[in-house]
Task: structure prediction
Amino acid sequence: MKIDRRASLAAALAAMSAPVLPAAGAAGKPIQLHVDLEVAPGKEATLETNFRKIFEPTISRQPGFVEVKLMKFRKAMVGKGMPRFSYRLLISFKTEEQRMTWVASADHQRAWPALEAQLKGAKLVALLYDLV
Result:
């Protein structure tokens, strides 16, 4: 089966930038986005370097930014885990609206491709959480 890289990339970007309506009573609450990344073989070091030198300094200047972390999967302690996704990016903002402003910014358009280029076929899973 042939993978349409453009279609996959378009779907991933749409999912990351799609407006999310806050749950009742959740307006203005902090959010955390978990992005599981399938990194292409041999591109792990470049991903980590680009995170530290490009992505982290850029996102940290954004209004409402709380924190960003890049974690490398070690092992599943309980259950199977998801070994296909070797890295997880955690992004926290004070509100979902502020995160969406970051996604729409020129800074994001410059910083995200530095990480995305290291992915295997633009494979990722993005999960949005409200902090309670």
Notes: Residues 7-14, 18-25 have pLDDT under 50 and may be disordered.
